Amino acid sequence: MSDFSPQSPKGPLSYAGNWLGLAGIILASCSLLTLLILIGFDIFLGFNRPYLGVLVYIILPGAVFVGLILIFAGILYQRRLQRKPGFKPRLPHIDLNNPRHRRNLILTACIGFVFLLFSAFGSYRAYQVTESVAFCGLLCHQVMEPVHTTYLNSPHARVACTKCHIGPGASWYVRAKISGLRQVYAVLTDSYPRPIPVPVENLRPARETCEQCHWPEKFYGSTELLHRHYLSDTDNTPFEIRMMIKVGGANPLHGPIGGIHWHMAVSNDIEYLPADKSRQTIPWVKVTNRSTGKVTIYRTTDKGPLSAPEQKDVRLMDCIDCHNRPTHIFQSPSKALNVALWLNRVDASIPSIKHHATEALMQSAGAESRAEGLQQIAAHIAGRYPEYKEQTKIEQAIAETQNIYRNNFFPEMKTNWQVRPDNIGHLNWPGCFRCHDGEHVNSTGQAIATDCNACHIIISQARGKEPASSSLDGLPFAHPGGEIPPGIACTFCHNGAL
Ligand code: HEC
Ligand code: HEC
Ligand code: HEC
Ligand code: HEC
Ligand code: HEC
Ligand code: HEC
């Protein structure tokens, strides 16, 4: 097609007739061939293995691209070698009346078109692959195992990772992929922190992610919650508590704005100053009523700053400030065993099994590896029941406790409930009591609500075989652990073992 010099070599191969171009040709053609075959497989048979997706749509196109660059570099290099003194390079000359030129042009256009078609499909699939749960959750298997396992056991198991972590729009996609590259580097060099630090830096505001599916105007009334506990006594006495939790509403068209989701009502902003990275201590809270412009500041008398903190340190409260574990839920030993006993996966007729199984889980929380933890659990429980007649029940209890361990404890990543605060409630973590603890007061000395009936009412509670006491007006909490000393937070005693 071109005749840019009298000694122009024949055929494209000779332009790249040096080691650089040759390497490029081999790399590009081999990867292109493999790529086309695999894309064919994907179109006609389909595969959903994340590793294959990454190979086909990210690594192989990369190799083709590198090959093309090498060929180009080879051509440039060759041309430099052939350049005579006084030689002036010219652009190729195409003559459409020349049948050879015409043929070559049509051929090039066809190849280009097919190539474009494949790359459009390829980039679409590359986008899909990098968006898939398998890509996010399985590719860096060990790093992501804790979040992936807990995700699969959660109410959001069918919501793609990216729906919460990236959300709609291109700019957050690009941002996520750029920070993803940094993470890939950290994984390759084994320099990532264990556990992965939370809160997630720069998580997209929940208003743009969660609110694609749930939005404050949709909440109303109260929701019934039923919790069944088993005490750590010989009989594993059940303790059942039923309460109406005042989920509340944020839409004036449905009724008065109030209840728990009042925080999210469109007409007010709550901002707060966290005193630590994990936002567990909150010394300063500001409420702005957007319609009246009224501002109320609550601060703790001992630690709260007297003047307003700098705006960059202040966080606007959103869904994640309460629902920080909507899907990566790491159950505490006591909570997980309560469910296992309730569902009869662990037989509640085994004396003190709640106590011993909880103890086994508490101990294995410090294990170095999963194998070691599982072994510790088996040894601990079996060691407590050497004489017990029905050994199959003990074996079943061990197997179930080990199952709890596999689903909630990740020793290689040093991750379990202990490093993953849950801000809903107030039993094992301060949660709501970060602000509703009676110590956050406004300028007139009034504290943020602490009344036990402000957020929920207990409508029924029952211990063991005693008849349940019930009332729709709310009952005072009959604490199974005896009277709670005044001024002592639940978290003082409840750390996951109780
Ligand atoms: C329902 C929404 C939602 C879905 C779906 C979701 N996440 Fe998360 N993820 C969160 C929230 C909220 C946090 C905690 C944010 C915080 O505390 O800053 C989080 C935290 C994380 C963390 C930090 C470690 C931790 O335990 O907090 C990682 C890593 C992570 N998610 C990865 C994933 C992966 C991988 C998937 C898919 C398998 C996924 N997420 C699916 C909402 C979600
Ligand atoms: C793509 C849609 C989608 C997104 C995005 C989403 N969720 Fe959900 N969420 C669901 C579905 C579906 C359920 C289960 C429905 C149900 O149980 O009523 C659910 C359930 C819940 C529940 C009730 C859980 C339970 O135990 O019953 C909470 C709380 C929740 N989501 C909070 C969040 C938060 C916080 C976010 C943002 C980090 C979020 N969701 C993002 C779809 C979504
Ligand atoms: C002040 C803390 C707080 C904030 C902020 C908050 N929630 Fe909730 N949310 C709760 C509590 C408490 C419940 C009761 C369920 C429970 O105890 O598990 C709840 C319940 C829910 C439920 C289940 C509803 C039902 O009727 O059972 C969904 C869905 C939900 N929240 C989503 C959201 C979303 C989305 C946001 C952000 C717009 C949000 N929440 C903000 C505390 C909060
Ligand atoms: C960052 C601080 C903060 C956190 C954390 C917080 N709240 Fe609040 N909450 C407030 C403030 C401020 C008010 C308004 C003052 C008041 O009414 O006492 C309020 C008011 C309320 C109200 C009364 C709303 C009404 O009807 O007037 C309820 C109910 C409530 N919160 C529940 C909860 C629950 C449940 C949690 C935990 C899941 C929680 N809050 C966590 C700051 C917080
Ligand atoms: C600021 C709101 C708020 C206040 C005030 C509050 N609670 Fe709660 N409480 C919650 C929430 C939210 C939950 C969690 C519900 C859930 O498990 O999803 C909860 C759960 C509970 C539970 C059930 C725990 C379990 O795991 O079964 C008990 C019992 C309880 N609260 C007692 C009390 C008592 C006693 C007081 C008064 C000292 C009190 N609460 C004050 C919000 C509050
Ligand atoms: C002084 C220590 C202490 C404090 C403070 C305390 N508890 Fe308890 N709690 C106990 C003990 C001890 C038990 C009995 C545990 C057992 O036998 O398993 C218990 C049992 C319980 C149980 C049922 C047990 C289970 O193991 O699943 C619930 C629910 C409970 N407490 C809620 C609360 C709430 C809510 C608060 C805060 C308002 C609170 N406790 C404060 C010591 C305490």
Bound molecules: heme C
* Principal-axis shape: globular
Low-pLDDT segments: 1-9
- Largest sheet geometry: 5 strands, antiparallel
Walk me through the topology.
Layout: H1 11-15, H2 19-44, H3 50-82, H4 99-131, H5 133-138, H6 141-152, H7 161-165, H8 170-188, H9 206-209, E1 223-230, E2 238-245, E3 268-273, E4 284-289, E5 295-300, E6 315-316, H10 333-342, H11 353-364, H12 370-384, H13 391-408, E7 440-441, E8 456-463, E9 469-470
Antiparallel strand pairs: 1-2, 2-8, 3-4, 3-6, 4-5, 5-7, 8-9
Helix pairs in contact: 2-3, 3-4, 10-11, 11-12, 11-13, 12-13
The structure holds heme C (6 copies).
Describe the fold and architecture.
There is one protein chain. The protein is of the alpha+beta class. It has 4 domains: 11-131, no CATH class; 150-203, no CATH class; 218-326 and 422-492, no CATH class; 333-419. Helices cover 40% and strands 10% of the residues. It has 13 helices and 9 strands. The protein has helices at 11-15, 19-44, 50-82, 99-131, 133-138, 141-152, 161-165, 170-188, 206-209, 333-342, 353-364, 370-384, 391-408; strands at 223-230, 238-245, 268-273, 284-289, 295-300, 315-316, 440-441, 456-463, 469-470. Strands 6-3-4-5-7 form a 5-stranded antiparallel beta sheet, with no helix packed on it. α12 runs antiparallel to α13. The chain is globular and about 100 Å long. It starts with 10 loop residues before the first helix and ends in a 28-residue tail after the last strand. The model is unreliable at 1-9 (pLDDT under 50). The structure holds heme C (6 copies).
